[in-house]
Design brief:
The protein is of the alpha/beta class. The protein folds into two domains: 263 residues, 3-Layer(aba) Sandwich (Rossmann fold), CATH 3.40.50; 207 residues, Glycogen Phosphorylase B (Rossmann fold). The protein is built from 17 helices and 14 strands. The strands form three sheets. The protein has a seven-stranded mixed β-sheet with strand order 3-2-1-4-5-6-12, sandwiched between helices. The longest helix is centred in the N-terminal third of the chain and has 27 residues. The chain is globular. The termini are far apart.
């Protein structure tokens, strides 16, 4: 007998909600004629601040509840709905003892990594890797930790009383979802983490991760190799498809990313001081806050505690070597970041004579730097596998989705890294990079198109945005949009009471 628990708390993200609704429909179909029950648990307010309501705004909560009720109403008695508020009893919360980010990472509650969950959410909100842990920060951060305690207790009670055998949730890394991931894993309850891939604004694909988070490197490696090995296409055709990923990125065509980060760079432009008579090492800095928000999955594979630590160690080790020159390219996504983990890098050029910094908004071409370098160092960014594709030896110093592919040298300790940098390394096989590109370009082979993808809406001949099949009033997507917009206006005018996120960094 299967007793299934669905949990979702991002109802203000209707496209994501559509992924969950589609999966709910498919599970109901699978359960026909079988013993068991489907439970759907959602937050009706207690979790704030949460990932989609980081300011703990009651008006946002009202829209979330509204969307949840509209989306679940058609299921009737096919599911049993559960509200989180039913389990939020008054309780004594733990006293959280932390003075650093490392302390936070160690905070656990009943096998749930609530420290990682809270940190993941907070970094996503602020991009602040080194928060000042003053009274304002602790008050806000402790509220996220306490919310996870409430959610953990609720989930444990539901799993026990309802005899839950399988769980489903969306994503799983943030504070308002991490507890169910950790509980399912620690209790050996089979689970699926749902995610999505966007092809265009009204076409989305459902990406399912079985018994792991969407960022799980081992899962991606196994699936990547399976997709490549089981494909009926010839190796030549697969390489051609995989190569399109790298060619498109080089040509400024958006592919499997949020935006084109090389836009504004001048094709072929190198730093003015480039000297072909030296051994030129390119170091590509990732947007470290994005990796930190993912958490321990990537962190455990890192050679250095942080990118900054790694760069400084490399520069100090080779400080007296005037035959080597290091070019540190700051990620374009760091343009407006004023936190110290970024600004401290800007000071390094004054300390090391064999270093040139390429600023985040520089017109210097990333691909020109790759082409002209003797060796490329990456901290997990896609630039690493791209450099392999373009025929360069790559040294990888942190976790990445291509970590287990044979595209880079992977030292386990700083001393191994320094030995590699003194050698004339051979590039890894280009076909291994193409395999990664093929995996990203062939997502239709391991995902499925969402039946609940949004559709363009028009009213009186005017485009009014997107409509959603699971969000309708009296069968009308337009009536839903009008009602939702009215509720937003009323809520913002009369009920909105936002809190402030403490963003002060070291």
């Amino acid at each position: 007998m299967k007793n299934i628990l669905f949990y979702y708390s991002w109802q203000t993200k209707p496209v994501h909600f559509g992924i969950v609704i589609e999966k709910l429909h498919s599970i109901i179909d699978e359960m026909k004629g079988k013993e068991g029950k489907i439970y759907f648990m959602s937050c009706d307010g207690p979790l704030k601040p949460c990932y989609t309501n980081r300011y703990a705004d009651p008006a946002v909560c009202s829209i979330c509840r509204f969307n949840n009720d509209i989306g679940l109403k058609p299921f009737g008695d096919k599911i049993e709905t559960i509200k989180l508020s039913e389990f939020t009893n008054k309780r004594d919360y733990p006293v959280y003892d932390y003075t650093s980010v490392e302390d936070i990472k160690k905070i656990k509650y009943k096998d749930v990594n609530i420290g990682y969950g809270a940190l993941s959410s907070y970094i996503s909100f602020t991009r602040n890797l080194e928060p000042v842990m003053d009274e304002d920060f602790r008050k806000y951060f402790d509220s996220i930790l306490n919310s996870q305690v409430n959610l953990t207790e609720a989930l444990l009670e539901i799993i026990e009383n309802k005899k839950i055998t399988n769980t489903y949730f969306f994503n799983g890394r943030t504070a308002d979802t991490r507890p169910l991931y950790d509980i399912s894993k620690s209790r050996d309850i089979p689970f699926i983490s749902l995610e999505m891939i966007r092809k265009k604004k009204d076409e989305f694909y459902i990406n399912e991760f079985i018994n792991c988070l969407p960022h799980d490197i081992d899962f991606h490696t196994q699936r990547m190799n399976r997709v490549w090995d089981e494909s009926q296409e010839s190796v030549e055709e697969k390489v051609k498809i995989g190569s399109a990923f790298f060619e498109n990125r080089r040509n400024g065509i958006l592919v499997r990313d949020k935006r084109v980060y090389t836009a504004g760079q001048q094709q072929g432009l190198l730093p003015a001081n480039w000297d072909i008579n030296k051994k030129n090492i390119a170091i590509f800095v990732s947007s470290e806050d994005e990796f930190a928000a993912i958490g321990d999955i990537f962190e455990k594979l890192a050679v250095f505690k942080t990118q900054e630590t790694g760069i400084i160690n490399i520069l100090e080790h080779f400080a007296d070597n005037n035959q080597m020159h290091f070019y540190v390219r700051l990620h374009p996504n760091l343009v407006n970041i004023t936190y110290s983990y970024h600004t401290r890098l800007l000071e390094l050029e004054q300390k090391f004579s064999n270093l040139t910094l390429i600023l985040a908004d520089s017109k210097v071409s990333t691909y020109a730097v790759i082409d002209a370098s003797n060796t490329v160092i990456a901290f997990g960014s896609t630039t690493g596998v791209e450099a392999c594709y373009w025929g360069k030896p790559v040294i990888l110093l942190a976790g990445s989705l291509y970590y287990h592919q044979n595209v880079a040298y992977k030292p386990k300790a700083p001393d191994e890294l320094y030995i590699l940098l003194m050698q004339d390394l051979e590039p890894k096989p280009k076909v291994e990079a193409a395999k990664y590109g093929y995996y990203l370009m062939s997502y239709s082979k391991y995902t499925r198109k969402n039946k609940f993808s949004p559709v363009p809406l028009k009213a009186l001949g005017k485009d009014i945005g997107l409509g959603h099949h699971h969000l309708k009033i009296f069968g009308s997507k337009i009536l839903y949009r009008i009602t939702e917009r009215s509720l937003q206006i009323i809520g913002n005018k009369f009920f909105s009471k936002k809190i402030t996120i403490p963003k002060k960094g070291i």
